[in-house]
Description:
About 40% of the residues lie in helices and about 25% in strands. The longest helix has 16 residues.
Amino acid sequence: MVLSLSGLTCSYGPVTAIHALRIGVRAHSVVAILGANGAGKSTTLKAISGLVRPSRGSVFFNGTDITRISAAKRVKLGIAHCPEGRRVFVGETVKENLVLGGHLASKKSIDSKIAEVLELFPALERRLDQVAGSLSGGEQQMLAIGRALVSSPKLLLLDEPSLGLAPIIIRRVFEALVQINKQGTAIVLVEQNVSSALKLASYAYVLREGRIGLEGTPDELTANEQVHGLYLGG
Length: 234
């Protein structure tokens, strides 16, 4: 397992956001985390990347317990987090955003990774000198993913990459995710677009009020009446 959560519990003050989660992610796989708003999906990603400290349980990355390791050190180990809302640096250019994504790497390595990002997202190459705040929503999402990729992650955490995008842009983003995964990067995907998420994922977990309510392969979850009724329009 590239990632394993063991009994992971996180709280915000008196409110427990996730309860004793046990989640596994195999190397080179895509795992989707689904659920309604407030189910604990974003908190789970933040606990993996180190932005939220668990009150109980453990996070293992490539067999090493990283539960108490800082977020910055987790980036060095190979975990990249692309948060909900894109969070690009709107006053910086596209190129400056990409360079910032590789701040822990050598210049030669950064240049090589930026070239790979531009090959994956050709629209960004024409915008390199534009400030990120002038980009469309779809281009900003591509930039956010690209910035995360410049750090050469072994594990990419994506929080709602399709949020607010037009269907044609969603399709392009998910096509890029297929390529990223084929190149060997494992992905944990939080996504409200359940149909697209299940097409990409090899395994999925459905959270309910911070707990795992259901889990299984995409075929198993698609056939499940609860999942179909709640998320697939059945």
